[in-house]
Amino acid sequence: MSLITVSSRVTLHFELSLEDGQIVDTNFDKAPASFVFGDGSLLPAFEEALLGMTIDQEATFVMSPEKAFGVHNESNIQRMPRSQFAMDLEEGMVVSFADMSKNELPGVIAEIGEKDVVVDFNHPLAGRSLTFKVRIMAIEDAA
Q1: Could you tell me which CATH number the domain at 8-69+126-141 has?
Q2: What pTM does this model have?
Q3: How many CB atoms are located within 10 Å of the residue 101 CB?
Q4: Is the predicted pLDDT of residue 78 greater than 80, yes or no?
């Protein structure tokens, strides 16, 4: 019997949902996804939850914000001069910024004022507990 280990390639169906049951992402109605353990496709705590599972096994895990996308961090909210934005803005819009290393950094427009714009650089799911539902379809040795 194949068990998921730290050297597995795993093919699975998954669903992520919020506390109120709203589905954030799912592939139960599509082709299953595959990943190699430790390749960064899944957050570490999500991978750890799969250890020891077998083919055809289904499970549901509740992931706290700390194990999912982190807690909401007030220092990730920035106030910027509205003059820095050349485009029309709407609250909830995602805008791409570059950090000091020129990496892309998405920010959500949280508030638009007369002179300032408040941008939230927290992950949109930060501070949320998520329900992670999985069904293991295949397990292979990734080595």
Answers
A1: 3.10.50.40
A2: 0.79
A3: 6
A4: yes
